[in-house]
Amino acid sequence: MNKRYLTLMMAAGLVAVAKGADSKPNVVMIVADDLGYGDLECYGAKNVKTPAVNNLAANGIRFTDTHAVAATSTPSRYSLLTGEYPWRRPGTDVAPGDAGMIIRPEQFTIADMFRSNGYATAAIGKWHLGLGDKTGTQDWNAPLAASPSDLGFDYHYIMAATSDRVPCVFIEQGFVANYDPTDSIFVSYNANFEGEPTGAKNPELLTNLRHSHGHDMSIVNGIGRIGYMKGGGSALWKDENIADSITAKAVDFINEHKDEPFFMYFATNDVHVPRFPHDRFRGKNPMGLRGDAIVQFDWSVDQIMKALEKAGVADNTIVILTSDNGPVVDDGYDDKAEELLNGHSPAGPFRGNKYSAFEGGTAVPFIVSWPGHTNPGTESPALVSQIDIMRSLGSLFNARIPKGAASDSRDHLPTILGQSNESRQYVAEMASNHTLSVRSGKWKYIEPSNGPKMIPWGPKIETGNSPEPQLYDMSVDRGERNNVADKHPDIVAQMQAYIRDARAKH
Is the pTM of this model over 0.85? Predict the structure, then answer.
């Protein structure tokens, strides 16, 4: 048979299976934290081995031009779970640990989409999207007024915010996990509690990690944090056990729901600061704690994949692996991450890191595997945005999404399954200071901004700010070094139109 004809027939068959009325594959979305495009071995990482992720890529599709919507965690995750750009919702900047819930209960989320189509749903790991109704009003000693249960998740076991922010406890089904009634929890982002030590005043108590900038408020597990906390007792996490805790909960969820379709949002803490992995990994990597954390992330992936196999559902499970934004090396803790890179480039070939308008801020690894449906060991150059994951996955079972929901998400399922290399018309990206950039085809445009050239408060990261329009030809200049805006006014005008379109409410 003609090879081209056979390929077309196979692709048509895959689409038919993917959109079949009775086809309800499980979906596991693995979202790493601050993991850069260049941090995985299958993306060219140096000095670190990631065999589990390598194996996932070898059995699926590895994308080389995928972008988070934002260069920081909270807005990126907001878009991933709602299909809506974060600049449409006030309060989606990096959230404090006592933020009220940013995704509101009346919003239709990706979890709502799956649950309304007969799926069991779970959110496990990092949350960082707020809890309770209003910022600073939570009673951490009682059931929370609002939690992921109000957003379509049947089960959740989450970090209240992120590991460098208080409260340093897990929330399970809207209540502090392992709650200690003898040690009530109090949280403040305004003032310390009387008699409580801090990293700034009691550095001798920083027995596990010291801060390099910031992170000098309350001390939990020998590590300074952002914000103030009192109490917690046996409910307080130990950083070295976080990966084990969330991975065990994920494995339990798989086993409990192996006989029904399920959707699991598994958001790891690695490689976010503070990096203090389990003893099994700590001190084993030449890049120090950051390298150890990457290896620990790979272990979590391995445990998930083994659990799917053991439960007998691996062949009917779509696994998506990605990161919430680009990497950061020194983000506030003296873990020698910068000194120990030894030629490793966390952002791969891209300029900038987390927070930045340059590509390193939003270019992320993206791997999709669905046995029997994705072509093993393939690479896709398609331009992809995480904003489209919601509607693309919804088209697997013809999900009905309410009018106005997932307003910025588009169905690109054939691309995500590797049946097509069709790119999105444009991909919008937001830096930490709300500067917008767009990618379209080979072009990258950054709108003018008068902000500083470097992040002013700690990490050594270029912001991408310039008072002049910036245009880069990514086909020959992935490092964004040669601004050609003055040579291509027509392209600049088109890219500016894309930004206006992204900002417009559709």
Answer: yes
